Amino acid sequence: MEALKPYEVAIEPTWIDYNGHLRDAYYGVAFSLAIDDVMDQLGLDADYRARTRGTLYTLEMHCHFLHEVKQSDALRVRCVVLDADAKRILIAGVFERGTDRTVAAVLEAMLLHVIQGEPTKSAPLPAAIADRVEQLKCTAEWPSDWPRSRTLAIRRG
């Protein structure tokens, strides 16, 4: 199983603050877009959402800021699946900027699979998607060059 493909982020001019840096909130926007791309890679794409009303909700997100990002920087988000259970996926993303791929930020998110409806409720991931997540999780390690802040974790039992 191959790893998740990196997501390239186009930094919009409106994302830049008065210091010439990426505004704090837009790290979350960029990570959210990268998670959408991960969903597509896992098979939780637009067709899946239309057929099943299934999707992922973000339960919690942490961001560790390391270096400034400017509008002129090329920005890439590499994601890994750190852990998962029947309904949840713990994902991390590293923001690499420029041609030297300086690590600018590390984000982690706890995602929950839900079926939207009346009522919206959590549900196990479909077997094929759960298998793919498990394969990715088994090969994922926290990259040694990615700093960590407070750790998110799936608590069991």
Structural commentary:
This protein has about 160 residues and is α+β, with helices and mostly antiparallel strands. The protein has one domain (about 5-125): Roll (Thiol Ester Dehydrase, Chain A). About 25% of the residues lie in helices and about 30% in strands. It is built from three helices and six strands. The protein has helices at about 25-40, 45-50, 125-140, and strands spanning about 5-10, 55-65, 75-85, 90-95, 100-115, 120. Strands 1, 2, 3, 4, 5 and 6 form a six-stranded antiparallel beta sheet that branches. A hairpin with a 4-residue loop joins strand 4 and strand 5. The mean pLDDT is about 90.
Key attributes of the depicted protein:
Thiol Ester Dehydrase, Chain A, alpha+beta, 157 residues, six-stranded antiparallel sheet
Quick summary of this structure?
Helices cover 25% and strands 32% of the residues. It has 3 helices and 6 strands.
